[in-house]
Amino acid sequence: MAVKYNKTTLSNLEQLFKEADFTIRYEKGHFRSGYCLIHDKKVIIINRFFDEKGRIENFLDILNQVKITDNLLSQRSKEFLSVIEKSYAEDSKLVA
């Protein structure tokens, strides 16, 4: 099952990162990947001109780069993270 690109998914991803103590900012800039991630300060800056799909793809890319501890997350966010991880596991099996 692939992740759906809609407002609910975007808000769930934003909530997941906020619960993990990340600060999310939407600003204009010339980012090669469409985002900037400052690990030390837990700040995520996403290009504000991206549409919903672009923002979701950037958050998913960042999610693969950072480690999020489950003890900070609400039950809803834990379930959402589990769905995303299962989706990526299925996608990697199809590619292999």
Output the keywords.
alpha+beta, single chain, 3-stranded mixed beta sheet, 96 residues
Question: What does this entry look like structurally?
Answer:
By secondary structure, the protein is an alpha+beta fold. It is 50% helix and 15% strand. The protein contains three helices and three strands. The protein has helices spanning 7-19, 52-65, 75-95; strands at 23-27, 35-38, 43-47. The chain has a three-stranded mixed beta sheet. Strand 2 (35-38) and strand 3 form a beta hairpin. Helix 1 runs parallel beside helix 2. The longest helix has 21 residues, at 75-95. The model has no long low-confidence stretch (mean pLDDT 88).
Quick structural summary:
The chain is an alpha+beta fold and 96 residues long.
**SS element count, helices:** 3
Side-by-side strand order of the widest sheet:
1-3-2
How far apart are the termini?
Answer: 16 Å
- Count the beta strands: 3
Alpha-carbon Rg, integer = 13 Å
Fraction of helical residues? 40-55%
Largest sheet: 3 strands, mixed
* Poorly predicted runs: none
Structural class: alpha+beta
H/E topology pattern: HEEEHH
User: Which percent range describes the beta-strand content?
Assistant: 5-15%
Which shape, going by the Cα principal axes? globular
Mean pLDDT across the residues is: 88
Topology:
Elements (H helix, E strand, L loop, with lengths): L6 H13 L3 E5 L7 E4 L4 E5 L4 H14 L9 H21 L1
Parallel strand pairs: 1-3
Antiparallel strand pairs: 2-3
Helix pairs in contact: 1-2, 1-3
